[in-house]
Every structure is written in C-alpha cells, then in structure tokens.
Amino acid sequence: MEKIETRKDVAQVLHMNGGTGETSYAKNSLLQQKAISLTKALREEAITSLYLKKVPRILSIADLGCSSGPNTFMVISEIIKTVENLCREMKHKESPEYHFFMNDLPENDFNSIFKSLGSFKEKLSDEIEAETGPCFFTGVPGSFYGRVFPTKTLHFVHSSYSLHWLSRVPQGVENNKGNIYMARSSPSNVSRLTMRNFKKISHHFSSLVQKS
Ligand SMILES: C[S@@+](CC[C@H](N)C(=O)[O-])C[C@H]1O[C@@H](n2cnc3c(N)ncnc32)[C@H](O)[C@@H]1O
C-alpha cells in the first residue's frame, strides 16, 4: 500500500520545467527534438498507411508525454502536412478534421500549449499556403500507464522520449548504489531486472494503447 502511494505521488508532481524561460523544457529539449527528426520517416509511413486504409472523417491522434514547447507542435504539424499532401495527391474534396489529444502528467504546463495554439495555427497555414482541415486540441492529464482514453477513441498514438519514464522502480535493484539509472558500474542484476520490468511495463502499455 505504501509503495502504491509513493508511485502515485511521483505521477502527481513530476513535470518538465514549464513556460518559455531560459531553464524551461521548451528551451532545453534539443536532444529530444533530434529524436523526433530521426523518426520522421517512420511516422510519415505509419500515418500514410493508416490514412489510406481508413480515410477517417475525423482523424484522432494522441501524443503521450507531450510536455510543452516546440517539440509538441513539431509532431502535430508534421502529421497535418503529411495528411494534407495525401489528400491533395488523392484529389480528396475535403481534408479530415484533426482531433489532437495532448497527454501528460497533471503538473505538465498544458496552459503553455493552449496559449501557443493561435500562433501555431498561423505558422502552419503560412507554411502550407492552403487551408487545412479544422484542428481541435484536447489536454488529457493523467498517466499513460492507466486508462486515459475511452475505448476505441484513437486512430494514431504517438510517444517520443517518454516511455523510459517507468511506472515503477524494478524490485530487487536496491544494490544499485550511487546511480539513479542503469550505469556501467551497476551490478549485473540491475540490467536483468530492469529489462524484465520494462518488458512487463511495455506489454501493459501496449494493451492499453490497443484498447484506445
Ligand atoms: C522528456 S519529455 C518528452 C516530451 C516530448 N514528447 C518531446 O519529445 O520533447 C517526457 C514527458 O513524458 C511525461 N511523462 C512521464 N511519465 C509519464 C506518464 N506516466 N504519463 C504521462 N506522461 C508522462 C513527462 O511529464 C514529460 O513531459
């Protein structure tokens, strides 16, 4: 019981630095931005195949662990551009409506995201030089290790640089003294137990994503 309380507390307080100041996540997330750039082709392929298969009227997309800042919008604008290009190529009369669900823990700076929506939309329409389908944004506070979406709500689920935040510390790694992660100096049981824990957590995570 005590352990569950501790986990719950972390999920209640954990957050990246909000706002746009010098120490904010928005200004200090170039490494994560690089990861998003490196996975661009994968995302394009996935969203293309999904859109061509389903051609949904409303395309529902979730970003799990979206944080706040330019990276949040980078993924969204890339997805919209890919789908808009497809619509043009396929000569669809209408673009879909886009519904983006921005998920993160409750202390995330959701307000920063919402405040930037106006400038994001302006920038996007300048870049695309055409009208896109209407875009809707919903903040979804809560841990992605629990149910945060009703059944069959989403077409596409994205998450970058977030799943390494485990839902719990693996049991039996108390001898990992002096480290807060798996390091070169960690005893061998640490990597074995962390791997086993990760498999369990990712299996649980995948089953939640499939439900949504
Ligand atoms: C390093 S940031 C990555 C943000 C963004 N996806 C990017 O690529 O820049 C990780 C984010 O995951 C969020 N996060 C960690 N564990 C989470 C959980 N269990 N549920 C929802 N969000 C979580 C953190 O609050 C943080 O905003």
TrEMBL record:
UniProt cross-references to InterPro entries, sorted A to Z: MeTrfase_7 (IPR005299), SAM-dependent_MTases_sf (IPR029063)
Source species, domain of life: Eukaryota
This protein's name: Jasmonate O-methyltransferase
SUPFAM superfamilies on file: S-adenosyl-L-methionine-dependent methyltransferases
GO MF terms, alphabetically ordered: methyltransferase activity
